[in-house]
Amino acid sequence: METFMMSFKQCHSLIGFFSWHIIHGVDKIGIQWHRLPVFLGLVYLAIRRYLYDEYNLINVGKTPVGVRFNPGDFPFRTADGKFNDPFNENAGGEGTFFGRNMPPVDQKDKLLKPDPMVVATKLLTRRQYIDTGKQFNMIAASWIQFMIHDWIDHLEETSQIELKAPKEVADQCPLKSFKFYKTKEVDTGFYGIKKGHLNIRTPWWDGSAVYGSDASKLQKLRTFKDGKLKIGKDGLLEHDDNGVPLSGDVRNGWIGLSTLQALFVLEHNTICDALKKEYHDLDDEDLYRHARLVTSAVIAKIHTIDWTVELLKTDMLHAAMRANWYGILGKKFKDAFGHVGGPILGGLVGLKKPNNHGVPYSLTEEFVSVYRMHSLLPDQLFLRDLTSAPGPNKSPLLTEKVNMIDLIGRKGENELSNIGFETQMVSMGHQACGALELWNYPAWLRDVVPQNVDGTDRPDHVDLPSLEIYRDRERNVARYNKFRRSLFLIPISKWEDLTDDEEAIKTLHEVYDNDVEQLDLLVGMAAEKKIKGFAISETAFVIFIIMASRRLEADRFFTSDFNEEVYTKKGLEWVNTTESLKDVLDRHYKTMTHTWMNSTSAFTVWDAPPDPKNPVPIYLLIKYLVYADFLEIFGRMKPMDRLLFLIIHCIDRSGMKWHRLPVLLGLIYLGVRRHLHYRYNLFNVGKNPVGVGFDPADFPYRTPNGKFNDPSDQNAGSVDSFFGRNMKPLHLTTKRLLKPNPMEVATKLLARKQFISTGKQLNLIAASWIQFMTHDWMDHLESTKQIELKASTEVANQCPLKSFKFYKTKRVKTGLDDHIKKGHLNIRTSWWDGSAIYGSNSSQLHKVRTYKEGKLKLSKDDGLINHDHENGLETAGNIRNGWIGVSTLKALFILEHNAICDALKNEYPDLDDENLYRHARLVTSAVMAKIHTIDWTVELLKTDILLAGMRANWYGLLGKRFKDTYGHVGGPYLGGLVGLKKPNNHGVPYSLTEEFVSVYRLHSLVPDHLLIRDLDSPPGPNKSPKLSHKIDMVNLIGNRGDKELSEIGFTKRMVSMGHQACGALELWNYPVWLRDLVAQNVNGTDRTNHVDLASLEIYRDRERNTPRYNEFRRSLFLIPISKWDDLTDNKEVVDTLHEVYGDDVEQLDLLVGMLAEKKIKGFALCETAFFIFLIMASRRLEADRFFTSDFNEQVYTRKGFEWVKTCESLKDVLDRHCPGMTDRWMNSTSAFTLSEGDACKEEQQFVGENGGLKSPHRRRRPVVGSGDCQQGSAEIRSTLEFGRQFVVATYVPLPFRYYLKKVSNSKRDLIAFEVEALQWKAHTNKPFSIEYANDMREGPVWLNYMHMVAGKTWYAIAFEDGIRTHDYGDKINSIGEFC
Fold this sequence. Notes:
By secondary structure, the chain is mainly α. The protein has 53 helices and 21 strands. Helix 30 crosses helix 41.
């Protein structure tokens, strides 16, 4: 920070103080401002601009006092630039001083240190041409010289000096020495900066490159007829007797500059014609004056929102430059309502009055220095043949290469007359210009003929790069490091800070030794690492920030006089409708760009692809906050949704990981996403019925086929209804269905090489559970037509099946003509209705029921599923493509259903069989839904945010205890989705979606073997039974698997699955045995044809028009990948993806992308899949009448309702039906995690650094201040084990004063955790229970089962029993009261 103290001390105001700290803080901690979300980046740049306007505008020369003239007397631009600023008639006039952006640095004793010709030879001279690619063309290079001729030129001395090349480089210099005129120093008459330099051009944006900077020059250019300027019949400039072009500024020109000057003479004259036609009474002088105003504004606008946007090609600068002209409200708003608000909302153009920030307008010495861009020029101009037919991307044939040295001065003018305007312009458009890099300064400019102001040649040649190095020193422009410090930019301390190029570092060391402070500005800017998309350095760019805005806001004709009265209505309309140089070219050469230009901007190489069109007619700022990938959907959003989208989009774009946010902020992020996904990611497939179809009271139960749930659509969610969509279907041609070949994809990217497990996170019960749920929710109706997939020759030898046949998914007409015309039918019910055990129609249900006391059939001998005596098939709901893991869970929940029937029969003896079945089904389905929501999903997505999020889905933010006590209070956030007053389908009939099916392709969870445990042995470490034997998984599917299960038994099967980790959802982890699999019919019978399931799943996604990975992510507002390295860091994966898909990331299959994607820490599945989960996990609850309006005692019965409320996990169900199983064999908290986990070691409480409780994922340490836990004195179970009763161990008390002394050096109020610790100590032997909540912060906190202010989330302690009994009666706010 010491390097900035001088600059910092300048910041006198409080705003300046804080602004400086903001930008310095961002820079110092390594946040790259250009990678921030657009909005934040614009804020950063706005703060910088404020600081620069305050502290980096230094006047040179005296400032007059008072108003010197009436602007009404000069409603036009004068020839010499005077009479623009009402307070200073000379400001910006010809012959005024260059200003300063920083104090001058006297370098008289360092003018030749190091020698300028050494610097130019060793660091600047071009070795090999480096271009800018497609970003910038030769028109762009010519444009900046056109602007320089508009703005700046120094008055020189009449005496010459000479630079001589030192011996070490003399042989490499085209000129061994050269003479030039010094810059003239003039007394300023001011005590501050005593000497300065004069600008012999007008620095206003007044078109002086076309009109000249004085009256005598202008006199030679005007025709004095209809306001027009002189122009040749061939559309080029006329010339005087000496061959010098007749134009505003002709010194040191070349034909690129001359071409643009001619173009804007044509523009001026066309404006004169338009004005003459509109206003017949205007005379020659008025026409000229109005046309000059309009032409100058068109030039300024093109530079601002066209040229600069291509120079700094980023979304942020696109937004910033357009905001300079239009304001953040945007063009449409400004065109409709005029300038509204200040410079931020309405833009700089059209402000009520000009603003020079207290410093008379001028351009600055530093501005001149950063505009040294001769490296943009190539060595040759490539001329094109316009008589040829346009080639690829409208590119004309190359006919001739002309050396650039032959295209400057009068010689160049002669050449241009032979070339012609159109050929010259098209040739420049199709040629990339040079890059502003080291070793890229044109060598031909080291021996060039300079010109006088009148365009005549001087006798002495000059070495231009050497001269430019000298000029910066001569004019006292700070060298690179001091220049950066003065602009609040962090300087370099070693050459490696500047560049990674080892050769550049070596040469810099050779030229400047180790003294980085001597580095010349031009060299530093060329060597500096460029911001991605920037053609210039950041150092140069920050000068642009100051001066690009200043040229507009200080000019009366862009602010107070930018109106119809001064410009005329026609003139102002002309400016407002011109958006680019292309518009000007189209006006004068109507077919040129249509025939030869493929790019969007005339400043990019013309054969470049056009930029994506932005269709959003909304505020410019918001428009450019958004990646082009999302503009279509953004354009359809409502205003509030756009704001919400920008929040989540900015978080994603900035690289801020939402899953690393504090829990509350993470939940807000997910809440915003869920809202947007509901609005824009739910598409109905099929016709919507109109009106209420039935009275819900007529159907207070779940029907066999899923009908009569949604009162507004009796068929919603039922069997044989359409799968919905989360995004528009992607229609593929037959050929694209096989590109790349699915069997090649499966072989090279999916097939398991070596089993990768999920570690302790998920076990085989978890893997079985998701197939259990899939059997509950979804299955596609197939066509009767079979097709065949064949392995390509390349992979055939690696495929278990060389080919296989399967049935196509049946496509059914939806009856919609203007939407999704065809869809696919779900032959299961998509509600959470337990159809995995009940079936999806009456006939299936009939086979399952006993018709006695509401119960379902179950084997009496082993508690397993009954089988049909004739064919051996399961007697359970949906039995297609099952295995014993699913069968085991089905059996468990049939037991659960029957146990509920018993409980209901006991409680309500009058209930008959049908009513017992109906109530028991409601309760069983709800138990399954609850387990999936707050147990399975929590383990799948093992993070604090998702623990909070999933419990909030069921209980709301107020928590279980509150909801159990007071019922559902508030909306879906406070009270949860379950128990809402009415179901909410968000305007789209409920269904599961094709995309949901796709992300539930989780077969990689399945291992190759089932490890059977020996339950006759005593439990080992962590209650782990011994391994007995292994069974191949292929032997555990279908009928063969059911027979194996009958031999293993329910308990052994469940314990074995509990102690075996499932597979990870990664590439090369898809079970090979699933590539030669017997598929089944809907009735559970085997089909004759084996299938390659991995290949089939790739094909199914394509066949069902599910978008591929990148488009899938775009549709979910997730940032897509642009290269394989964005997806994974694994080089082998990247190479294989490239081998299979080439470079086309858009062709990446969804399944492959999800498996390759970098996982969020704690997530067993990828983020892409998770956001479909986010939509559908909530939708399955809130769209279902039986989880919302009918989730009550009246429908469920009081006993049934209580059953659901008290069941929190699969472990609870297992404990109910297999007493002793979990106590003996389960060490983990959840039945879905590996039972060998260490989550239940003897409990040790632990405290965070600030007194908050730490996350259980971190290392634990004993509580300080409440006593150390006496191990073995009592059994202390995991605090994560929700709802269970425990006894606190005896604590060894510590003196509280000692504790305070240890925590803090001074006395203070108790923090919430200390209060909690005291209560633990006071009620050592009192049972307590564990409840989910957040960490506590300092100060009084209401421990209402979820602390909303917390950062990390995992638990809280409920003290009600102890406090009510001993301390505070029935007060719920016990901890808050205690604090």
